[in-house]
Structures are given as C-alpha cells and as structure tokens.
Amino acid sequence: MELFVKMALQAWDVQIKRTEKLINSLSDEQLLQEVAPGRNRGIYLLGHLIAVHDAMLPLFSLGEKLYPELEEPFIKNPDNVDLVVTSVKDLRERWTTIHSKLSEAFNAMSAEQWFQRHNTMTDEDLQREPHRNKLSVLMNRTSHVAYHLGQLMFIRHD
C-alpha cells in the first residue's frame, strides 16, 4: 500500500515541478497568449489548475480553500479575454502557495489515509466503490495537470 502511495505522490510531484518549470520560463505576456487559435490562454490554464488544486484542500479534509474566488472564473466558466480576475504575477504566487501547502499536507498523510473516502463520498459509497478514494483523486489530478501542461507547451517561446 505504501509503495502505491509513494508512486502516486512522486508522479504528482513530477507533474507539478514540470508545470512550474514551464510557467516560470514563460513571460507574463506569453501567458496571456492562447495555446492555439481559439483555445484557452496560458493565464486561464494557470488559474484553472490553481483553482482545481485549491479545491483538494476541503475535498481531502485539509482545510478550507485558500482562493475560493478563483472557482467562478477558472472552473465554472470558460476563458474570457474581457474578464480580468488577477495578474499573472499574482497567479504565479498563488501557484507556489497552494502547492507548498498541498505538498506539506500530502506528505503528512499516512498510506491508510490515502485509501479513505474523500468529502464528496459517503461511507456507503466507499464500501460500494473502494477505488474512489483520495488516492484515486490524486491520480486523476495528476493526469489533469499533465494534460494542461501539454497545452501550455504550445505557447510560443520567443
């Protein structure tokens, strides 16, 4: 059990670090570009990932969201060039903050905790579907960040 958790956490860390490296290599202006014509901008994808990862705090009983105001523009709605929620600089800082908090919390969790239910499930749900646990959410979010990292790679590098 511990081996599976270690592997999942390592995969999460790799994708977060790869994404952070790319984000840090792009200028604010580059992050304002669309990843492809008619597609999301880098700033939207960055805000989206922060909002999704922030939602993991209450989902895993690790505390309240740090940035609940990001849910509306970055999860519930598509990219909108006319909507200015915050700056790229601010999102970069929020990226660092949320991932530091998640890393600390994740590393403090026992292997048994990873196989427990998350907060959108009941105990009965977990009995019926034990594979729908915190670890499965982490694995899903790892794939999610990898998917958007692939999109971010299409931003022009000057």
From TrEMBL:
SUPFAM superfamilies: DinB/YfiT-like putative metalloenzymes. InterPro entries: DinB-like, DinB/YfiT-like. Residues 13-152 form the DinB-like domain. This is DUF664 domain-containing protein.
